Amino acid sequence: MEISSQKSLEKVLSQRALQMGSSFPCQICVVGFLCGVCLTSLFLAALTSFGSFEFGGFSLSTKSLGASPRNSGSEIFNCNFKPKETERLEVDSQSVKERTDDERVSLLYSAWSAKLTKSVDEESEYLKQLRLSKSNVPNAPHLENCKLRTQVNERLDRRPGNESFPPWTGWKGVLDMNPAATTNEQMTYFRHRVISEGAYPPWITGSDEENYPYTRKVQRDIWLHQHPLNCRAPNVKFLVADWERLPGFGIGAQLAGMCGLLAIAINEKRVLVTNYYNRADHDGCKGPSRASWSCYFFPETSQECRDRAFDLLGSDEAWKRGIITAKDNYSSKEIWTGRTPRLWGDPWAYLQPTTEINGSLIAYHRKMDRRWWRSQAVRYLMRFQSEYMCGLLNVAHHAAFGKEAAKIVLKSLGKEWPKEFANKPNSDIEDYVWSSHKPWIPRPLLSMHVRMGDKACEMKVVEFEEYMHLADRIRKRFPHLNGIWLSTEMQEVIDKSKSYSNWNFYYTNVTRQVGNVTMASYESSLGRETSTNYPLVNFLMATEADFFIGALGSTWCFLIDGMRNTGGKVMAGYLSVNKDRFW
Q1: 400-424 per-position pLDDT tens digit
Q2: How confident is the model over 178-219, as pLDDT tens digits?
């Protein structure tokens, strides 16, 4: 009986002990004990590693404690213990931080968007809805001040007073408008002397070695040819020409044709005056710039010469005496394959071999004079962007780079934005020096124009994979290259780009071709405004990129190459998937 009672008592005690062992307070005690052991072990291990440490003059040596690395508690216990609740709290905290950062980026991106797409009053109202004001929205580094840039360029594209040249000094942008430059007599004298002697035009970037031969001199001479001192002088003759508008003629072909007409005008000592430009005949081009090249770029000549030329169009005597001619006076052969101006000798004979095709640099081909001249002509025709074109680039920059720019700006501001931030008035260095810097883009940047579709009837067409093979070759030499500005009319190419996760692709948001339709049909489906605006944006982005991959068999790529070679990019090289069909 006693034995039975004893067993029952033991059983009750065992159950009670089991219940206590599984209770929460008991578990806490066990966890606390294990943590204490872990901390003690780490403490001893640290002493063993460092030998001794001091607290306020009290020195403690691990040698006196007899701790041995082999008996370190970290080998006996697993001290990586972390309660799951703590892990969850840390993850939640990180998620909240990322969400907060993303919200701030979106807020700043939206504020910048309003600046681009809304009127001044609409922008202010929209910012109020975001609980912001213009005073606490930081400047957007990727956007150009188009109004200021256009004003500066207009000043650089005309002669002041009775001067022989525009104010092309060694000072860039608005620096020579600084009060110190206009009030200092000695500075004014030297500035006047530089202008009188004829400095080089400001739209050329880089030295002579970084451009095609004679680029700066040629650009100056073309400007002087196109801007005579007196447009009504009896010896001033004109060539008035519409832009090509035959069905199937793309922007590249139109530019190539106008390059030929400019060559004829220079050879015959005429001022070229462009007339109707069908691609600018849309609602985006306002006022006098509608249906005119000036909607996108500065006019090829002065308004005085344009007025004089259009007056002479109605004069039978002017036609009879040859004071004025038109495109119809010249054959297609003269326009498209006519004689390159020889005023500067033959600088194309020593073009630097920086174009690679099939692994070899091209040192010579049969049309080097045409390549050199078209580069000069296109650079002149596109020397300054209009305010409208500048705005189109701003929209493209913002869509592609806006959120990256917002992250960079917010990182520099810290956590106080938008609560504790206000724009300060600009200093002189910001207004007169830094204002000349170009908008930020994520550099280095590779531009790639992939031409496929109906172009197969004119040149060898290669798959997108071949272009990417060339991109990998560039990155092998420049491993910090990660971004590609992708220009293409084919949706297939955009889809394929998504499989290259190790590259960042940027491209305009426009409907692209699906299937093999003609370029004329594709452009018609987009409408005149879109089918003109987005290619020009891609063209200018390609000229600003650090590297370029294209197909020289495409006139568009041929002209991009020319703009880069007169824009300080000669030594960046050019990797082409094929050669021009006329070489």
Answers
A1: 999 999 999 999 987 778 887 878 8
A2: 776 666 666 666 666 666 666 789 999 988 899 999 999 999
CA quadruple 530, 533, 537, 542: dihedral sign: positive
Residue with tokens 């305009």: 508
Query: Pairing between strand 547-550 and 355-357?
Result: unpaired
Residue bearing tokens 């006139």: 555
Write out the H or E segment, with its range, that includes residue 271: strand 270-274
Say whether the peptide bond before residue 234 is cis (omega within 30 degrees of 0). Answer: no
pLDDT band of residue 445 (cuts 50, 70, 90) is: very high
Compute CA distances 55 → 40, 42, 492, whole Å: 18, 18, 69
Distance CA(181)–CA(176), nearest Å, equals: 6
pLDDT tops 70 at residue 554: yes
- 357 strand-pairing partners: 360, 576
CA Rg value for the chain: 35
349-356: long-range contacts, CB 8 A cutoff, minimum separation 24: 350/213, 351/212, 351/213, 352/570, 352/571, 354/570, 354/571, 354/572, 354/573, 354/574, 355/552, 355/561, 355/573, 355/574, 355/576, 356/573, 356/574, 356/575, 356/576
d(CA 237, CA 168): 26
CA angle 99, 104, 109 (to 5 degrees): 125
- Strand 324-326 to strand 237-241: parallel, antiparallel, or no bridges (unpaired)? parallel
d(CA 475, CA 547): 10
Name which of 376, 388, 364, 383 is nearest 559 in CA terms. Answer: 376
Calculate the alpha carbon distances from 492 to 417, 520, 539, 548 in Å: 42, 19, 20, 21
Cα-based torsion angle of the residue sequence 136, 142, 146, 151 in order, rounded to the nearest 10 degrees: 100
